[in-house]
Task: inverse folding
C-alpha cells in the first residue's frame, strides 16, 4: 500500500493546462497565468491528484484561437493515459497528423522518417528534437516514447510526435519560468514549484530523492538541468497515472498485486 501527501483539492493536476500551442515557441500556454497562486500542497483534505469521490474533475475546455492560419489541434499537454497493464511491447497503430498541425512539425517528422514508413525510431526522434535545440539523452527519449505511445516498441508516429513536440514546448516554458536566475538549472525549491504548476504535489522526502536522482552531479549541486527536468516530470507523471488507475476512491492510497507493481515500475527502470 502506498500513500501520497495530501494536496489542494480541485482539478486533478492543478489548473487545467489550457492550449499548449502558444505562438511563441517557449511562451506560457494561452489562458494560463504564468504566476498563478498555488495553495499549500500539504495538509489539504484531498488526494494529491483528484477531488473527493463525490466530485467530478472539471473537463478541459477548448481554448479560443486567434491568429492567422488554421487553428492548432486541441490536445492536452500531458501524455495520454495508458490502458491498464497491457503488453509493454505492443505494436503501434499507424496514425496521422492532427488537423492544423504546424507545417514545420510535419516537415521535421518527414525529414526524420527517411524510409517513409510513417514511424520514426528512438535515434531518429532524438535527432529530430535536437534540430529544435531540444537535446535529450536516449533514456529521456525512451521515456517520451513510452508515455506517449503506451508501448516500449520504441517507434512513434505522426500523431504522437506532434503531441511530444508541443508538450515539450509547454514544459520548456515552465522550466524557464522557474529558472529565475537563468542558470540553466533549477534547485529543489524551484523544482517543487515547477511540479506544483504541473499539478504534482510531492513530499519533501520525495523531492529530495528526485533531485538526488536527476542531478547530473550526483546530488552535489542539488539542481537539475532542463533535459533531466523533462525526465523527472515524465517519471512523476507516469507513475502518478499508474497509481491513479488503482486509487478508485481518490484517497491517495492503492493496493497493487506483485505483477501489477512490477509492470508499473519496470518500464521506468528499463527505459
Result:
Amino acid at each position: 500500500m502506498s500513500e501520497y501527501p495530501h494536496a489542494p483539492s480541485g482539478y486533478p493536476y492543478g489548473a487545467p493546462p489550457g492550449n499548449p500551442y502558444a505562438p511563441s515557441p517557449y511562451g506560457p500556454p494561452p489562458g494560463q497565468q504564468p504566476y498563478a497562486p498555488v495553495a499549500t500542497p500539504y495538509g489539504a483534505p484531498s488526494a494529491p491528484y483528484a477531488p473527493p469521490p463525490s466530485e467530478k474533475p472539471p473537463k478541459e475546455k477548448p481554448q479560443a484561437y486567434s491568429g492567422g492560419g488554421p487553428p492548432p489541434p486541441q490536445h492536452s499537454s500531458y501524455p495520454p493515459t495508458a490502458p491498464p497493464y497491457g503488453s509493454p511491447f505492443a505494436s503501434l497503430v499507424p496514425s496521422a497528423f492532427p488537423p492544423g498541425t504546424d507545417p514545420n512539425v510535419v516537415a521535421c517528422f518527414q525529414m526524420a522518417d527517411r524510409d517513409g514508413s510513417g514511424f520514426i525510431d528512438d535515434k531518429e526522434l532524438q535527432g529530430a528534437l535536437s534540430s529544435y535545440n531540444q537535446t535529450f539523452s536516449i533514456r529521456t527519449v525512451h521515456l517520451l516514447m513510452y508515455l506517449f505511445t503506451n508501448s516500449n516498441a520504441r517507434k512513434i508516429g505522426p500523431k504522437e510526435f506532434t503531441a511530444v513536440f508541443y508538450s515539450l514546448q509547454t514544459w520548456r516554458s515552465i522550466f524557464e519560468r522557474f529558472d529565475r536566475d537563468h542558470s540553466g538549472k533549477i534547485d529543489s525549491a524551484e523544482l517543487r514549484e515547477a511540479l506544483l504548476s504541473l499539478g504534482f504535489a510531492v513530499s519533501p522526502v520525495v523531492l529530495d530523492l528526485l533531485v538526488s536522482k536527476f542531478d547530473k552531479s550526483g546530488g552535489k549541486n542539488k539542481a537539475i538541468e532542463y533535459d533531466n527536468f523533462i525526465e523527472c516530470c515524465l517519471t512523476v507523471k507516469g507513475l502518478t497515472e499508474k497509481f491513479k488507475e488503482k486509487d478508485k476512491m481518490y484517497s491517495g492510497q492503492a493496493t497493487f498485486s506483485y505483477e501489477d507493481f512490477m509492470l508499473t515500475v519496470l518500464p521506468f527502470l528499463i527505459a
Summary: The longest strand covers residues 185-187.
